[in-house]
Design a protein that fits this description.
- Chains A, B: Keywords: Cobalt, Isomerase, Metal-binding.
- Chains A, B: Its EC number is 5.1.99.1.
- Two copies of one chain form a homodimer.
- Chain A is built from three helices and nine strands, in the order E-H-E-E-E-E-H-E-H-E-E-E.
- In chain A, strands 1, 2, 3, 4, 5, 6, 7, 8 and 9 form a nine-stranded mixed β-sheet that branches.
- Chain A has a single domain, classed as 2,3-Dihydroxybiphenyl 1,2-Dioxygenase, domain 1.
- With 134 residues, chain A is of the alpha+beta class.
- Chains A and B meet through strand 1, helix 1 and strand 6 of A and strand 1, helix 1 and strand 6 of B.
Chain lengths: 134, 134
Amino acid sequence: MLGRINHVALAVPDLAAAVATYRDTLGADVSQPQALPEHGVTVVFIELPNTKVELLEPLGEDSPIAAFLEKNPSGGMHHICYEVDDIIVARDHLKQQGARVLGSGELKTGAHGKPVMFLHPKDFFGTLIEIEQV
Amino acid sequence: MLGRINHVALAVPDLAAAVATYRDTLGADVSQPQALPEHGVTVVFIELPNTKVELLEPLGEDSPIAAFLEKNPSGGMHHICYEVDDIIVARDHLKQQGARVLGSGELKTGAHGKPVMFLHPKDFFGTLIEIEQV
């Protein structure tokens, strides 16, 4: 079921500082920041030859990464996004196996405009997993 | 400087349980466990089309992931490994930029038999970074 890693997301408290570090210290190719108010984050993409890293900074009052940054004030690894061919098939299989889909348990539209769901980290050894149909 | 993501490493308290979850619930292609006593871990590789995930379980007394699992008893995202063409050039550039290499500050031989170094998570917004020359 699991396909490519679409991205690895890192939460950071200060996006401008993180951009400078990834660009200058690590020599990475970083995008311009994009504010995604409907997702509660500002995001920068780091394009790598085989996948990408996303740097996330909270945006607005109810950012989904605010609680994570309260627990990890310096930032940290937030989630891994895997691609699947058919997210409906994936969702039904996951639920049938007892895995919990976060939120309403239904699909949403993700930051890339594609259908996504997030799986409960308690069902996956502390790792927050995003599943995206590409 | 940063090349491909070679792997994303997840620390887990119970490798057999994690293997069952990744294989059966997530439908991933998981390898047989490999004990790496000189690295203090037992590792399982999850091969994905564009990169891999490594599940790490502590092995022996002084496992480098023991402290992480004390803080995160359920497990969690442990590090990201990026490839570089020339790790000496990378190390010198990183040091010149003020980034700290963990341990002696020098290169080691990693779990894949290639030269590696780990960078201090405090210099990279809470993310532990491994750099590997492939």
